[in-house]
Write a structure and sequence with these properties.
single chain, about 40% helix, six-stranded mixed beta sheet, 8 helices, alpha/beta, Pyruvate-ferredoxin Oxidoreductase, domain 3
């Protein structure tokens, strides 16, 4: 396997950190060297949260340089746009069609940009968009949006699907597992279409 660089971007409370741990767990269990980096920018107040996952035969640094991310997994539209400079020229973006207004917008100090997906499409040829919140509701809880998005990512990577299920079972508490497994399957099937 060549080195794969994945950035997960979102806001506090969306489950981005759990998602990075699940992805990292799958790669480690596949005998790859994995480095994770997490940045919490005022996460508890809805600020940006960024996780970098680098995996390969041998990885020396957890940080992804601008223009080097193979995949950006965006849990929120504005965060996808904000971090596009990190995407490799042939990279792919997966975007949750959700808008979470930052504090500056809520206080009237800024305006949330319009037509974000169109702006991303102008810069990126390979984009998958999904209303993961609606899919999560169909699974019984809005708390599984992250797992819907992990499912899409899993459909793009060469790890066996059973490894993903095993990682979910290992890292998600039993009482939440059923909804998460269902959400993962929904995302995985969406990514295959």
């Amino acid at each position: 396997m060549n080195e794969i660089n994945i950035m997960i971007v979102g806001v506090g409370g969306q489950g981005t950190l759990l998602a990075s741990r699940i992805i990292g767990n799958v790669a480690v269990n596949s005998s790859y060297d994995v480095k994770l980096s997490e940045i919490h920018g005022m996460a508890q107040r809805g600020g940006s949260v960024i996780s970098s996952i680098r995996m390969g035969e041998k990885v020396y640094s957890p940080l992804i340089e601008k223009g080097a991310a193979d995949i950006i997994l965006a849990f929120e539209e504005l965060e996808a746009l904000r971090w596009l400079d990190y995407l490799a020229p042939d990279g792919r973006v997966i975007v949750n069609r959700q808008q979470i207004l930052p504090a500056s917008v809520l206080t009237g100090q800024a305006v949330y940009p319009e037509e974000i997906i169109d702006k991303i499409r102008e810069r990126v040829g390979n984009i998958i968009t999904i209303d993961a919140l609606t899919v999560a509701r169909k699974c019984g809880t809005t708390r599984v949006v992250n797992t819907v998005l992990i499912g899409i990512l899993a459909s793009l990577l060469d790890f066996p699907i059973e490894m993903w299920r095993t990682s979910l079972k290992r890292l998600i508490p039993e009482r939440y597992l059923g909804a998460n497994l269902k959400a993962f399957e929904e995302g995985y099937n969406y990514g295959l279409n």
